[in-house]
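input
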Amino acid sequence: GEHHDLIGAARRLWHRPLGTYRLSAIERQVLGIDRVDDVDAAQIPGLYLEYLHDGDAAPLEPVFEHNRQDVLTLLHLRQKVRRWVEDGVEPPPPVDWEGLGVLRLRAEREAHAEDALRCALAEEGDHAVRWRVALRLARLLRRGARWEDLLALWEDAALARGTWRVKALIETAKVAHRR
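output
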């Protein structure tokens, strides 16, 4: 259900730029939330076992507060992700633009997906990722029969140095032949 969707979205949006999609990292680096006096999640099982042993619930209070914060953060995050994916609102950095493009494609927001994929092409340094993004964008343009835009995409890619140049030239020739 929705919980799984949020994990998948978090992985797509932040795993590459943050190296993780843990809620604590997203809170800090994406939402700008810095929890003070928060119980360390690693301590929670021990506190619970103590409670089972001595019946005193007082040490669990910080755990309840921690969980309350998690729920509020997840609600806040879900609302934001929905706006970024479905309404095309631009998310703050750091964000994986390709991942956002994929989420927007799944939500059938093609124009917004194109924007995100073009951002990914502009910002991505890794050639393998750029090629993957170009292929995603090309599929979108082909579906819309946007041959001029497709030709421009491949001509642009053909200017790059390295292994993808030949592939891009081949793609350029295929589109040029179609017209």
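quick obs: The chain is about 70% helix and 0% strand.
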